[in-house]
Amino acid sequence: MRHFTLTQLRYFAVVAELQSMTQAAARLLVSQSAVSTAMAQLERTLGAQLFLRNPSMGLRLTPTGRKFALDLKGFLDHADSLFESAYGTAETLIGELTVGVFSPLASFRLPAILKAFEATHPGVDVTFLEADLASLQTALREGRCDLALMYGHGLGAGFSSQVLERVPPHVIVPAGHWAANIPGQEVALRDLAGEPLILLDLPHSREYYESLFALAGVAPNVRHRFAGYETVRSFVAQGHGYALLNQRVYNDVPYSGGRVVPLRLVDEFPPSEVMLVRLSTALPTRRALAFEDTCRRLYGAAHP
């Protein structure tokens, strides 16, 4: 019977992530020769080539290696869970957790979520992967994060999700805009037809905003496109146009100075759903479940 060790598997997971024996050895605090030997032994045991070694291109995973790396993550998570059950009580959690987060959401609730989670589970080392919605789906499929806090726009098949919050869209205009002093601060999207739009231009978010214009029967006059939430707000504050957004920032003064004025939309538009998302085929670790519980507590009861 062929055998491999848990150490070899852990070494492989780090080498697969970093695509470098040298960097993997530095992270693992072992010699490069120890990592190289372990990888060679693992390949012999499996009878398969996991890496392509090219002096000019460096280390690359073979198709077999990529599949093995993806399947291995759940196995190592389960091994950590076994250790946790033997190490302490059901409340004791240790190990690593990687959480994906949609860039515009990162600054709103995430710092408070992490603070609350670390207060309850100080033994868990949490890292974050900040990205757009499309990249987060890829990261989940490739096993580069355990779960993701994101919007549900464009969510493909193969994921399970739970809604934490539904956020309606709103408009922001510069302080000197004609609509800034409207009683009740409500407008219809059609009221802004023809005015220059500063578009938050991120995959799936872009399509969501475009769908709102289509529902209103308005062709947007896109003046500028930006991937940064605060960049969009800054351009609006300086009078370059208006923007359509979801998350409401309580400070109406952006980095550039000036001021933005948020306006409610009277249109009946579908909201953005803030979700916790993970692969439907992945068995969540106790660490991931604990993080999800913290998110639910801070966001309030999850919607059905």
From TrEMBL:
Pfam families reported in the protein's UniProt record: HTH_1 (PF00126), LysR_substrate (PF03466)
- Gene Ontology CC: protein-DNA complex
In this chain the HTH lysR-type domain maps to 4-62
> Keywords in UniProt for this one?
DNA-binding, Transcription, Transcription regulation
Leader sequence range is: none
Domain of life of the native organism: Bacteria
Q: Provide the GO MF annotations for this entry.
A: DNA binding; DNA-binding transcription factor activity
Q: Which family does it belong to?
A: Belongs to the LysR transcriptional regulatory family.
The name under which this protein is listed is DNA-binding transcriptional regulator, LysR family
Organism, by scientific name, is Cryobacterium flavum
